[in-house]
Every structure is written in structure tokens, then in C-alpha cells.
What does this fold into?
Amino acid sequence: MRKIITLLLIILVLFFTLGTLSAFDTISQTEKEVKGVLNKVSPSIVKVVSENHKRYVATGIAIAPNQIISSMMVTRHPYEDIYIKTVRGDEYPAKVLGKDRYSSLILLGIDKKALTPIRQARGIEVGDWVALVGVFYKRFPSIYQGLVSSVSDEELILNAPVAPGSSGGAVVNRKGELIGAIRGRFGFAYSPDYIYKDHSAELFFRSPRSRNKDLCYAVPVSRVMAIADDLEKYGKIKRGWLGVSLASRTGKDIPEVSRVTKNSPAEKAGIRKGDKILKIDGSSVKTHADVVKIVKTLKPGQKTKIELLRDKVKKSVIVVIGDAKGYQYSWRFYTAPGKNLVVVPEISGTLPKVENYVFQFSDFRTLGVDLMSITPELAEKFNVKEKSGLMISKVYEDTAAEKAGFQVADIIVSAGGIKMKQITDLRRALNEIKDDESIAIEIYRNGKLKKIEVVPDRSGEKFFGVFDRVKDKLRDIRIKIDDENRLRIEEAERLQNERSKLYELQKKYAKEAQLIKEKELRKYKEEMEKMKKVQEELRKEIEKMREIIEKEKKKQKTEV
It folds into this structure.
């Protein structure tokens, strides 16, 4: 029985020992793989720094011996110097060759071919293991691991943490090959903090209630290289433009052309209002997003076949894709006619502190004008008996207002019998009528009352291009927020480092002073010892002299 128990104990000990050794072997193998990836990738990773009183830091990826892809974060603020630093400690002045606001990537160049280009991966799938290599605050290289959560042609979503400073960093596979470039964290937003409404739109401002710090965005390597190629050639990204607005009632309907821009590629190719788009360049489309996505990938000047459905008959047209131009926004303060009187709009109350913004445009009826409420003083000046109204500051082309004959400086005092005091009053009046129903609007023009019948437009499609621009702005804001937080942390760290340096300097000076003191003390002691030896030698010499003198005295006495 004892033998059996002893044998069982031996087996159990061997089992747990082998299991522990196996676990240690697995951990050791993982460590070797991660360190191997870091060693392969590090020569292709650089720290990108821009300076102007403050330092802005991001990660860069060498894609050529003299070219780096990095994050726009380092160029968002005015800078005096921009340079890169390699893992070996070498520094090189850099210049910006081009920027892409949509992806938040920039292309940098240096004068010397001194970099090791990173190898590119051929493919990626959901569930693949990835490593993120870049800058952690001001220290680099750093490495994190994660998994691929989502894959598309334009974007990757990764289950991996993003450290401050790692924007623009490399996402690599087990072989150390580039899969993508880091853009920033992935966040959410719920519950509006502030709602803005006027006669034409609704704006919802929302702050994030939840943010997952373990999810991040990245730009796929194929897109990164395409962006780099355009930035090198043109200094910007050339994206395709068709020149149509689309309408889709349910989201399942085939995208229908609701408006064709004048002199656009679509108009020149013969596309009409009411056409339904079936295919672009051989790819089927089902939603607005499909159309936008495909057109943006096409290059200006490229001839593209578009298949349409017109009056239940299929038709094909060849379109020469145009160049999508960027949009610029500016705030305007309007001047009352005949006077240099600037009316500055006021905001009542204070806006909440928000970190992120979501803009939601609802479907609406609109005239196609910009408006501002007039003050009682202006009402008196323009002979408005009602003492209130809405002044038209701009009339947009190809809108209901333009077709009905509205003009800038017209003052709307009533619409559908509703008096106009605030811009929301017009919105309420327009939304109370039925589709294709006209509304009577009373205006003052040159001091005289006039009535205009108009059928408002009902289509958010006129503002379809806003959605893409808003989405781009949201991404920029989200990345900027992450970067600003990182900069605040970095500034605090810098101050702490300065304090540490000052403390170390004080310690150094105190130590040096102590060493000098000890050295002088040793020197003094050595001098004293020397003096003692000299004194001793002098004493001995004096004793010898005394002995000699005594001997001489004795000798003289003897001779006498």
C-alpha cells in the first residue's frame, strides 16, 4: 500500500512540475517573439518632434530611406522646427512634403538617405495578432500587443491600447511587417448636452459618456502607401468627385440622384435628376455610403462607367471623374444696408464643456437662406411696424428662395400667419405645411410690405456633402482631444523632469563641493605631514649641530 501511495505522489509531482515547466516555456517563447518583432521594427521607427516654445511629439514610420509617414498632430500648431530622431539617437531636420486631413497622415522628408524602410504585409484578417510600435510619451521605442477587431479598405479597428505619442506609429504582424498606421483612440457618445435648432437644421452636441481605451483606429498599409504616393507627387490627396446629391427614403432603396451640380462630371456625362445608380466602375452600390466610398477612391481624370436605372430602363454612361475640392468655413458678421453698423450675434447662456461632437442633420423644409433676428432699433430704422423680424443675409443658388425672388436685406415679418421673432419661428411655420404646399411669407423690402408665395424645398439632400465634412471634423476633434490630453500629460512630465534635473544638478554641485572640500583637506593634511617631516629633519640637524659644537668645546678644553 505504501508503495502505491509513494508512486502516486511521484506521478503528481512529475505532472505539476512538467506543467509548470511547459507554462514557463510558453511565456519564454512569447517573450522571444515580442522582442524579435521589436528588434525588427525599431530601425524603421522614428520620433517626430515639432517645437515652438512647446514640444509636440508623434511617431513616424520610415517607408523610404528618406521619407516618413507620421501623424498630422505635430503640424496642427505653428512650429519653428520639425525634426526626427532615430532609435540610435541620430537627429535629422525634416520638411513636410504633404498632408491629408481625411486620414490625419503627413509625409515627411529628410535630406539624407539614412533610414531603414519597413517591410509591408500582404494581407490582414479579423482576429490576427498585432503589435503596436511607437513612442510612449517621449520614450521610444515601446510595444503593445492586441487583436484586429474590424477590417475595411479605409480603416482598421484594433483591440489594443494607444499610448500618448504613438499616433502615426506602426501596426505590425508577427513577422514585423507593416499592417497599418495608428490614427487614435476609438470612442462613443450618448445623450445630447446641447441642442441647436433653426428653420433648416438641428445640431446635437454630445459629450462621451463612455470611452474604450483599448480600441483604436488605424489606416491600412495599402491606403497608407497610396496616400504617401499622392502626397509625394502632389502634396495633397486627389479624390474623385461626381457632382450629384442622392436621396434614399429607407436606406434600402437604390441611391437616387436628387440633384446634379452645374458643370459637374455627372452633368457632362448626361446623368439626370431621378436616375438610380446601380454600379460604378463595375462595383454594385446599395447605399449612399457605397457611392461616396467608390467615388472617393477614383482619381480625377479617370474615365468610369456608371450603370443607371432611368424610367425602369437600364442605361450606361462614361464619366470623367472630377477633383473633389476642399471646403472652407468662415464666420461672418453682417452689416445692415446703408450703414457701417455691425450686428454681432449673441449666444444666451453658456455652452457645456464637451470633449466630442456629433452633428445630426434631420430632414427638413427650407427656403435656402441665411437669417438673423433684427433688434428693435433696426426694426425702427427699416420702418418695420411689427418691431421684429428676420433679415435675409444670404440667398443660396438653386433654392426655393432664389426661385421665388427673395433678396438679401429682405426682412421676413410673418410666414403662414405666424409672426417672426426668432429663427425657430420660421422653422415651425415651414414644418406645419404639407409637402409641395405653398406658404405666404410677408417681407419688408426698401421699407415697403410685400407678400411672396413660395413652395419650400424639402430635402436634406442639398446638404448631403456636409455629412462627409462633419465626419472628417469629428475625427479631427477626437484625435485633437487625445493629443491635447497627451500634451498636458507630457508638459507635466517635462516640468517634473526639469525639477528632477535641477535636483540632480544640486546634488551634483553639492557632491562636487564636498569633493573639493575633501580634496583641499587632504592636501592640507599632506602639507602638515610634510612640514612635520621637515621640522623633524631640522630638529635632527640641530641636534647634530649641537653634538658637533659640544665636541668642539671639549676638544678645545683638552688642547688648553
Remarks:
- Helices lie at 2-41, 221-234, 265-269, 288-297, 376-381, 400-404, 423-431, 464-559.
- The mean pLDDT is 77.
- The two ends are 123 Å apart (CA to CA).
- The longest helix spans residues 464-559.
